Amino acid sequence: MPAPSPPPTYLYKILPSAPRSPLPPRLPLSDLDRTDGYIHLSTSAQVPGTADKFFGAAAELWLLKIKYEVLAVGTDGDGTVKKEGSAEVRWEEVGRGCFAHLYGADLGEGNVEEVLRVKREGTWGESLELEW
């Protein structure tokens, strides 16, 4: 499935706890990402629903903010650009929408722009204001 048009400026990875600081070149995969064989990502519009569905009981979350164009060219977690086709973002239909999945690369200091700590106040939708 093609990327949304226009593509988002940022994608987000939701984490239930703080990542190591400073970020390493390769963050460990979640159990879900390891099982599925790709890294689950969300657009700013998708983060609140995903957070409510999978992290509804959490009082705080950590978000990795990643420029879409950095991932789209195949930038790995260590900052190297992999050869064409070996690292890619695929937009795939999932029951409740079209989501970005990162194949063949890791997240880390070389492709994560910012780490955001977010405290829940009400629903995640009421607590989150993210850049598209």
Automatic annotation (TrEMBL):
Lineage top rank: taxon: Eukaryota
Species this protein is from: Massariosphaeria phaeospora
Protein name, UniProt field: DUF952 domain-containing protein
Pfam family, one: DUF952
Record-linked InterPro entries: DUF952 (IPR009297)
